[in-house]
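As described in the Methods, two query proteins were run sequentially through the folding procedure within a single session, without resetting any intermediate state between them. The first query and its resulting structure tokens are shown here.
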Amino acid sequence: MARSSANFIESDKLEWEELGGGVSRKFLGWDNQIMMVKVKFEKGAEGAPHEHFHAQSTYCAEGKFEFMIGDEKKIIKAGDGVYFEPNVLHGAVCLEEGILIDVFSPVREDFLDGTGVSYFGK
């Protein structure tokens, strides 16, 4: 079944979906192959270590985060990007309040239908 978002998504007209632990998100576009999600973190909020079969690329739009990918840790700041291979353990801790833009391929069906467990505790 083909499913997709609207062609134009105006972030300021969307409500933040509260995920708990100082994390909230907005869906900025998706179809069966790709998904973009805007994720807001309060200082100290965590994306607990997790893995999934999706490829993921993340852009740090605001703030500062410590990312962990496998055994490696690195501080990422606004303007930086991160790539996560499928099925590799990764997570993040927000060091300065910020916003990440996550892109997944294929779409995170579990985010859309609420049946899966995300790394934000929902």
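Immediately afterward, the second query was submitted; its sequence and tokens are:
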Amino acid sequence: MQTTEATLGALERRIEMAVSLAEIDRGVNERLKRMSRTVKMSGFRPGKVPFKIVEQTYGPQIRSEVLGDAVERSFGEKVREQNLRVAGYPRIEPKSESAEGQIEFSATFEVYPEVAVGDLSSYEMQRPTLIVGDAEVDKTLDVLRKQRAVFSPATQPSVEGDRVVIDFTGRKDGEVFEGGQATDFAVVVGSGQMLAEFDAQLRGVSEGDAKTFDLTFPVEYHAQNLAGQAVQFEIVVKKVEAASLPEIDAEFARSLGVADGDVAKMRGEIRGNLEREVKRRVRTALRDRAFEILDQAAKFDVPKALIESESKRMAEAAREDMVKRGMDAKKIPVEPSWFVDQAAKRIKLGLVVADIVSKNGLAPKPEQIRKHIEELAQSYEQPQELVKWYYANPERLSNVEDIAVEDNVIEWLSTQVQLSDKAVSFDELMNNQQTA
């Protein structure tokens, strides 16, 4: 077998291969002889089928297998010889003409890029800081009380905290837009459930009121067809209900899972949960910024084969999610092309992270993984059961290992960039989002 290599682009390569027909013939003959010793065929005893019949029946299939093995072996030897890291699968094609006594093929494929992360010293990364105190506990208790509010008919126009039940219709250019109509829709005024402009229209209303108002959706609104668009809403107020909040007492503590009703213990548990949530949010902010920096600093081409594969995987995941939500995926076809940019970024970051971990010895240690799992288990009534649950399944354990890898990369990156602390408020860190 002979091979030659050609460079077609930054990552694309082509290997030309020539396989000896004599070698193929020998391989086919050897396999057919082995097969003839055990092959079963109607009218003959096992192992007694004439070789010619075996050859006529199985020869084409065996030749195809032997040829495929020879080409695969030749390709593998060349790749190892050149120390190439193949990305995806090669496209192997026979040539229209071959030299006498040979069959010639070409294998076109991509290789993994040389990962290059530029100078990181000019990048800035801010670490949010927040100490959980009584004020944060009180604010959380206020939220928990509102979640357990009891509503009754209001005797005055609506104020913040009241629940308003409305019918509404939204029109863009005079036409009702998708998702712009609802009946018996309940909104707690001031809860952030609606856009601020919409919420403002629900203050000071009484049962039976009707009003029409203009609204402009934010440019970053999640529905692209409405982002930045001016629309008009009509609303009819069907109910206004005032909220009655529970007292912070033993009964309230028991409703939150504190069996003995100890209010001080309840506050301690809330503080612990908040501290864990703050830690998680800080980590998320650092991870997002770290990945943004690495994406900007790393300059290399990403193999198209990997992007195509990841795009297909993401499209399939989207289809599965639609099915889980009760939607008919056949009526809403999901195309891999929708995910190309996201897939390219994900593949690129994966290659960068893997390179950083390898070059800097950042693979997580068993004790680090154990610590992560134990931290996750702290908020559960039976922490050890959750620990066992993670260790009982390799896939679940792998997810925690991925988190540990990210933490190691974030810690490493913080020593390479300009890191500073930034005090943030409780609301800023928790980043309460408006949903409509």
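Confidence is low (pLDDT under 50) at residues 432-436. We note this only descriptively and draw no conclusion about the first query from it.
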